[in-house]
Design a protein that fits this description.
heterotrimer; A alpha/beta (565); B alpha+beta (641); C alpha/beta (203); A: 565 residues; alpha/beta; Serine Threonine Protein Phosphatase 5, Tetratricopeptide repeat; 6-stranded parallel sheet; 46% helix; C: alpha/beta; 6-stranded mixed sheet; 6 helices; metal-binding (chain C); lysosome (chain C); hydrolase (chain C); GTP binding (chain C); nucleotide-binding (chain C)
Amino acid sequence: MHGRIKVKTTLEQQEAKRKEREKKLQLYVSATQAALHKRETGQLDKEALDLTAQILALNPDFASLWNLRREVFLQLQTDRSEEEMQSLCLGELTFLENCLRVSPKSYGTWYHRCWIMKIIPKPDWARELTLCNRFLEIDERNFHCWDYRRIVTQSSSVPLPEELEFTTSLIGKNFSNYSSWHYRSKLLPQIHPDPLRIGRVTEEALLNELELVQNAFFTDPNDQSAWFYHRWLLGRADHPVSIRCVMVSLDEPCVSVTFSHPVEVQEDLILFLNNRPIFVSWRTAGRKEKRSLFWVCDLPKECINDPCCQYNFQVLWKDGEAKKECILYPGRRESWFRDSATENEFFSLDLSEGKSNVLQQELKSCKDLQELEPDNKWCLLTIILLMRALDPLVYEKEALGYFETLKVVDPMRSGYYDDLRSKFQMENAILKMEYAESCLINLSKKGLTRLCHLEHLGQVTHMNLSANQLCALPSNLCMLRRLQVLEVDNNEVVRLEGLWNLPQLEELSLQFNKIQNVSDLQPLSSCPRLSVLHLHGNPLCEKADARTQLESLLPHVNTIHLSLI
Amino acid sequence: MADDLPTEFDVVILGTGLPESIIAAACTRIGQRVLHIDARNYYGGNWASFTFSGLQTWIENCKQELNTELAAACKGQALDNEEIIPFNKRNQTIQNIEVFCYSSTEDGEAVEEAGALNINSALLTTVTSSDGQENSSIDISKNHTSTEQNDSPEGRSDLEEATNSDQRSADSTLETGTIVEVEPSLTQAIQQDSPKTITYSQIVKEGRRFNVDLVSKFLYSRGLLIELLIKSNVSRYTEFKNVTRILTYHNGKIEQVPCSRADVFASKQLSMVEKRILMKFLMHYIDYELHPEDYQDYENSTFLEFLKSKQLTPTLQHFVLYSIAMVPENAKTIEGLKAMQHFLRCLGRYGNTPFLFPMYGLGEIPQCFCRMCAVFGGVYCLHHSLECLVVDGDSKLCKAVIDHRGKRVDCKYVIVEDSYLPEQICANVSYKQISRAVLITDCSILNTESNQEISVLTFPPADKGQTAVYITELCSSTMTCMKNTYLVHLTCSSTKPTAKEDLEPVVQQLFTLSTENDIEANDRTKPKVLWALYFNMRDSSGVPRQSYAGLPPNVYVCSGPDHCFGNDHAVQQAENLFHELYPSEEFCPPAPNPEDIIYDGECAQQEPSESSIPVDSKAEASAENETVVESYEDSEAQKAE
Amino acid sequence: MSMEDYDFLFKIVLIGNAGVGKTCLVRRFTQGLFPPGQGATIGVDFMIKTVEIKGEKIKLQIWDTAGQERFRSITQSYYRSANALILTYDITCEESFRCLPEWLREIEQYANSEVITVLVGNKIDLAERREVSQQRAEEFAGTQNMYYLETSAKESDNVEKLFLDLACRLISEARQNALVNNVDSSLPGEGKSITYLNCCNFN
């Protein structure tokens, strides 16, 4: 074979590689042992740094060795000058950078970098920012780097518009990037804060963002990150915790408070009666939950002994973070004061006319896109959300049509869509009820799979939930303190835990449901006024001794309608 | 020195263009003895790249008439029963050269290229080389009748004045040299100040920053050339840059063609619905073979008609036809779909566009294959002409070649670039022509934040019967032009008598051709052309072998560059020729990784015994020289076994 | 990081007239032998030697001319990415010294402007036949800002020193660059050579 070169055969190469590996492994093992020995014996010196560096360069996820390095640095800190520490730390940063180039997604390495930046005498945050940006250019989804970058930007007080520009450039490179979109959603409310709505952005900024994100989902309608951002843009302001409703009833007697968000109440919710605090103990209407939208307390009888007086009730939460008053006029047995859903636009965006034009445009674009991509679930869902943002009632029927399409194209998530539709249906029904200034709410035949927004139904006396697909009556149904008549016929109700402690409930119709046992009706024993109960068409009716059992379980119920299916 | 040339080779290759260089590498890779010769003193033939002064020399040489008489020495070398076919020594492939200078040439006469060595003659008697192309002094503006001279003393600051007179020698190298290592982003920061007027003398002085390609091509990232570079390990010799954007000329202005997902997202020209239609169309037809039902009705129609039928808006039709498929308007549907598919499949392999450009110009690529050939023993002689082929009277096979010094080299095969073929052989050949223009401009045709864009621009045909003009714009980070300038190449198939007639209308639409400095104040919308070169290059790519009359069967012809944008033709040609010569051998197998090579006596650490070392120093020198020859003998011996 | 293959990688390119002993210098350094009567092995693109300096592994990729210098036909691309150039002449051959300006011109023309160039006068074992005095060569090297060293590949004089000094200088330059723009140097996926050009996706 003269004239032609000899090349190692595959076998020889493998053998050479194997030997190389073996050598490395031996080195690795002995270096590890030596390093750990140093730790045990407390020899926190530069040699320990060299040893761990060898191993960490190969295996940056060896957490205890990073710990060892930190121990060494802490030790060095005690007897080295600031200049010496500075140069040691700079050396460490260079070492870390080399490690990151090899494995840019090692948590330990980023964490250690962060730690070094905290102890380095003269940190250069600008350089760190450049480093982060370079790594994110390579992999914009490196969330370790994103995390570190957050710390860097905090420490280096980068102007926010520059940060926004940074996300723009990353999105320009690849818009399938949750991190960048998410970061935008955090930056924009700080750069262009809406003076009226906390956590939201000015209309002008919003318009720009809508255009940007529209570009993304027209380019690739299957990219979720853009749709998620779009939803954030259309989202409502994050309202602070407020008290939505205070209700006083002398029958029990009690005071109930409904919050906008579930809260945990201890001593920070104070009840004033005619400007004087009174000692009460708050409980949720349910039995277990710690946080709840709804809190109720018993009113000491001696407080309201004169029915001819006017009583001024006030609740104050967290030193005035939220409060609400409610006046009980002379001779009245009950009273409430609440925020109305229609006035406060709880269910739609409070839009200026200009912006609602934009949303109309947005809706039109999405409908265009839907025509091109009839099966795109994100697009369908966005159309529905836009319609709700614009006007829930005007688009009610059309939106329901899109729900049907959505369930067909995405059957996997039809349960989710049913729940969402239920939510929207209930919102619409609440709006209609409020516009009619009624205390009756008719939710029959809405295809409901779950109940929500019950905190808005505090004044309802009569609720019809018949002909839906409800399996259970949820525990927060007990917020309906004034509920007298409840119809839940033709559902799939099995459990009744929500029908607990409804002070005014007189008549309950549960015909054609799936209640199996008399014991399932146990919660009803806590409803003192319940006198009529319709149980026709439930499995329990088949049981021979059903009536006897019911009568002993619910002695106060006068009329129980019970017959075979 | 040429006397050292061995007298026998397996293959003699004349011409160092891309196909010849690939074949040369392929032949030595299978152990053949290759002599690779070029009459020019540079590599690449019509595939070459030149510094600015090198380009001037090339222009001069193209115009020169060469002595076409056969050297008398040849006659004596041929035997009685042998015939002689002389080679053509005049390069007729380049015609209609026209040069225009629009930049200030005020002090152009005195300027020399920077970096000319300042060598102390007291220490050393410098031997003036006659063939060093860069050595020739430059005095272009006066030499060409067509070069417009315009002395405009206005518009130059004192600062420039100072720079002009001071930075004459090596110290300027250091400063300008920093470009090499500076990242584009940094260069950008440095160059933020508005473009200064670049004078002709600056161009001359910075002349070696230029690497002007005679052919303007890019490498498709999944094209045959890239695959071959990777497969053969020739890729280790060069580095590439991504083309950063695809442009088109549409509705009277230059627009960026969105061709990747990120581009479509960022595009400002497309409506939302167009974005969706384009993405959907591209994603669907990237695998067009899977959906025959979607195009078979249009198989006999043009691609444009097909695009119309798919509800693409006029803008989208334009983008897809000219900039993505890059086919002419009359291309058939399948041709368009194939071209579009190739483009799309190339996207994203190395960047946001399908194209790569070699640092220092396309002329590097043939040289890389030559290096590979040399590493495997190929013998290289530039500036060495061959006089004739020696043909055996009986077999009509070529037996040898004779060089300009009358040296006869025996060989089994000859591969020759077609420009060397004599007229008698090419009498019946009809050639196409390529029209070329090279411009040096002062800013980009489409300015963005980055001034380091590498752009491809398709200029659609103005009239029926004309062809689209492909324009490439290179920035200084490609190492093909000096800082603050752009190198623009225009290429099309010729339809008019001269390149200038073909291309000047396009140049005029995109650029300002003016020597007036004050125009800058008014019209900065178009880049200013500082210097322009037009020429026609012969396109022999379509010539079938049969059209060459009287060529010995063991003489093979390589064509010059074709007009296409990619390099597939050259690679395919090289591979086909190689397989004609060596049907059973592998074409360019991977060169071994130097780390896997086992050397004789690798572990032997012993000193060679005193006696075995030739005391004579010349012996050592010749030992080195003889390597190549020895190994040939070895491989020859091996064959005999 | 000593378990990595190397800490630094440098490309060193040899140039100079044919017969001045370039290949012998490379083989002496990389293989510790003086090739008797034979030069470059066919098919060897470059040779590799990893040296250790102050605990750091430096991998030197040493490229030879592949014989292209014989007829003055070295490809430009040979110079392009070299970190260092070793320009060699033969102290017993005036002609090889006289050609140096031509080589320097090629370097100016084609090599990176930050390349480190070392001038080497080889074959000092043949001192009795010296044609170029050390002083003359040193002065010439001085005017061109080159380091100068005289070697004997045969006697192994100064060969190690040549490459090790070069490696040291390359390291310190690399360090300096690293300090200036470490952040800007390329990260994985940004390399320019084709094997390193990374993917970005259409889909």
